[in-house]
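Quick one, probably user error.
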């Protein structure tokens, strides 16, 4: 019975109802009434808490397996895995580097390019000193002999808070979505990756280099691309690199693209915001510096044109207070030569279903922007 399965919810619900019923029915029967009542009530509460926790986990994808919950390796991480916060040992002369071994494994799973492959690994952050998981989607075309010298565009994906790789892999249906769009000719074959963003949970990193703290910006924009470039035939310049994110990931997408305009040509924000926030989940990421906070606020940095032109795609729900007001300010801040496409939907929600539907035209838009 999987941690994410519906059957787990059913079992916990049945146990809760059953234990509660038995406790009520036997409340005044037999001996040892007080111990039985205490045990019955305690077990019922445990089942109720377990049911609530399982339901929340199913919605937010905090843990996707029992191994993940218990911190046990499932043996499916790939050929070279680093424990979080620990570096990967340097390979010997006769060993492939971690990126090369990871790419080789993915090629072996592609069945000579008959289908796409998604695999997980860990990225040891040489520059950031952070080690976090990453999942990579590689299209079937990448493994086909006719394309053995071809470079492919890359889209870096970012999740909301709290979130994980599963936001994109499961909630956003990454593999089936890209497979369909590529097969229909709506986008060219692309490499897509989603990496961990939260090295110090439950703290929300906002994907920034925290003052005196985790250097998550460096991890995502330096260490992750370096790994991808070593492992795969990626686009050689910014014209073939883009960012896309949902909710907090939408902020990450816009902020990181604007902070590294020589690395990315386009950014997609779905249900995101554009002002650097400070709250109970983030702590003071900017060390009290107004300048550092402004340097991580896309509403501000979009107005600075000492950089190459960029293209932005925005999606927001008008009745979403966490996204729409900030999106309006960002729309007003973007000017030529930057390109801007935006979709404002009157009603909806702040969830995977809405974001997945919104991502389909965003992917098509990216397909027209990216050049390998």
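Nope, works fine. Designed sequence:
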């Amino acid at each position: 019975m999987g941690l994410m399965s519906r059957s787990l919810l059913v079992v916990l619900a049945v146990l809760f109802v059953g234990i509660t019923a038995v406790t009520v029915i036997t409340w005044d029967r037999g001996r040892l009434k007080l111990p039985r009542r205490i045990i019955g009530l305690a077990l019922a509460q445990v089942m109720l808490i377990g049911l609530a926790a399982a339901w929340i986990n199913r919605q937010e994808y905090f843990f996707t397996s029992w191994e993940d919950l218990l911190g046990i390796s499932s043996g499916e991480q790939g050929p070279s895995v680093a424990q979080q916060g620990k570096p990967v040992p340097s390979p010997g002369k006769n060993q492939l580097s971690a990126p090369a071994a990871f790419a080789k494994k993915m090629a072996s799973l592609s069945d000579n390019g008959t289908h796409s492959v998604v695999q997980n690994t860990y990225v040891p952050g040489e520059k950031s000193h952070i080690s976090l998981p990453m999942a990579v989607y590689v299209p079937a075309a990448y493994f086909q002999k006719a394309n053995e010298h071809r470079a492919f565009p890359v889209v870096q994906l970012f999740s909301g808070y709290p979130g994980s790789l599963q936001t994109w892999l499961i909630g956003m249906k990454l593999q089936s979505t890209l497979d369909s769009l590529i097969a229909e000719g709506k986008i060219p074959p692309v490499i897509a990756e989603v990496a961990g963003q939260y090295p110090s949970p439950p703290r929300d990193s906002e994907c920034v280099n925290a003052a005196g703290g985790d250097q998550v910006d460096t991890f995502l924009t330096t260490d992750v691309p370096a790994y991808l470039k070593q492992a795969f035939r990626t686009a050689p310049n910014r014209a073939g690199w883009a960012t896309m994110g949902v909710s907090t990931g939408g902020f990450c997408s816009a902020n990181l693209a604007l902070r590294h305009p020589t690395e990315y040509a386009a950014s997609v924000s779905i249900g995101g915001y554009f002002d650097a926030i400070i709250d109970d989940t983030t702590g003071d990421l900017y060390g009290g510096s107004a300048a550092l906070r402004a340097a991580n606020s896309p509403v501000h940095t979009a107005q600075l044109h000492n950089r190459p032109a960029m293209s932005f795609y925005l999606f927001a729900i008008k009745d979403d207070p966490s996204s729409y007001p900030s999106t309006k300010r960002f729309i007003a801040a973007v000017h030529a030569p930057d390109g801007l496409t935006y979709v404002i939907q009157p009603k909806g929600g702040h969830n995977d279903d809405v974001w997945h539907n919104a991502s389909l035209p965003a992917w098509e838009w990216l397909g027209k922007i990216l050049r390998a």
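The two ends are 43 Å apart (CA to CA).
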